[in-house]
Amino acid sequence: MNNKFLNPVNTQTWANGRHEVQCVRVIDETLDVRTFCFTSTQPVMHFFKPGQFVTFEIEINDQQVLRSYTISSSPSVPYSFSVTIKRVPGGQVSNWLHDNMKQGGFLAVHGPTGIFNCIDITGDKVLMLSGGVGITPVMSMARWWFDTNTDVDIVFVHSARTPRDIIYRRELEYMDARIDNFNLNLICEHYGNGESWSGYSGFLDQLKLNIIAPDFMDRIVYCCGPTPYMTAVKRILTDAGFNMANYYEESFGAPPEEDRIDAEQQASDTANLEVNSDDLLQVEFCKTGKSVKVKPGLTVHAAAAQLGLHIPKACGMGICGTCKVKKISGDVKMSHNGGITDDDVDAGYILSCCSIPQGDVSVEF
Ligand code: FES
């Protein structure tokens, strides 16, 4: 650790935006899951809300690729942050990171951001349900609560394929042994020859849930895992009559259909509309000195694309904050999913992927 981080005068806190970070450690968690630890190249304390994510900007085969990953570390250890990534068949970015990101490597990162976090969603009694590498946001929350000696009553239920696939197993068992308000329950689909397993076997179901957390109806549920896992969890809870207003999941990559903003689709939709030229709206990009007249309904991002201007974009759904630009003048209608803070909005920033001009608009790009 460079001592520059310990100088409170020079050290800044992490704000949503683009930062350069350096990989300072790579840890093998399981056979196909690795944790990558990063620090900023500038002295920065990595404060964020446990459960939030960052978006990596990576050049692969001369193409810029953006991909979001939940932060697995806790802001209680702010000198670095980590992400835990599983190698998946065909996973362009995850495999690239596994193959190429070593200690000393550099990366550009956007964020942190995200509404699935334990600061904005709170409760005295919680039930954390995770499957596979979906453990990362709830692990960040658990680490935060553990490190800060909170009195939140935590039931932590993690499902893995086999005992050897349990990510962070020793750390989870340590927390379980150390404090009495952390109750760990591990479920393995099956176990291999020569492996011993004394925990739950199979899948999470109503019966197991009743045994593990008989008071689950009184808890706030945080859930993250593969889509079939989250679908099964929701079915178990709704069948039991659980109040789904107390259910929260990492909806990363799967927001409600009506919230999806697809700029290219919008561009083609609006291109097919007959519009009076008086109704065209001017979108100006003042740094590059370019402007374009667009039909109503097009996002600022799509307007930029018409000019060949590429505002960085990852999720396209107002989640990740990658496409943030400063609005200089005019009004937009922004339908985001938590990818921008109220402070940023007050300062005039918008997410270009989900902001639709309501008149002539000028942005800083
Ligand atoms: S690209 Fe993610 S918020 Fe716009």
Could you walk me through the main structural features you see in this protein, from its secondary elements to its overall organization?
The structure is a single chain. The chain is an alpha/beta fold. The chain has three domains: 3-113, Beta Barrel (Elongation Factor Tu (Ef-tu), domain 3); 125-249, Nucleotide-binding domain of ferredoxin-NADP reductase (FNR) module (Rossmann fold); 259-364, Beta-grasp domain (Ubiquitin-like (UB roll), Roll), CATH 3.10.20. 20% of the residues lie in helices and 32% in strands. The protein has eight helices and 21 strands. The strands form five sheets. The chain has a six-stranded antiparallel sheet, with helices on one face. A six-stranded parallel sheet has the order 12-11-10-9-13-14, with helices on both faces. Strands 16-15-21-17-19 form a five-stranded mixed sheet. The two termini are 36 Å apart. Bound molecules: FE2/S2 (inorganic) cluster. FE2/S2 (inorganic) cluster binds at residues 313-316, 318-323, 339, 351, 353.
Produce the secondary structure layout.
Blueprint: E1 12-13, E2 17-28, E3 33-40, E4 44-45, E5 53-60, E6 63-70, E7 81-86, H1 92-100, E8 106-113, E9 125-131, H2 135-147, E10 153-160, H3 169-178, E11 182-188, E12 200-201, H4 206-212, E13 220-224, H5 227-239, E14 247-249, H6 263-271, E15 281-285, E16 290-294, H7 300-306, E17 324-329, E18 332-334, H8 342-346, E19 349-351, E20 355-357, E21 361-364
Parallel strand pairs: 1-4, 9-10, 9-13, 10-11, 11-12, 13-14, 15-21
Antiparallel strand pairs: 2-3, 2-8, 3-7, 5-6, 5-8, 15-16, 17-19, 17-21, 18-20
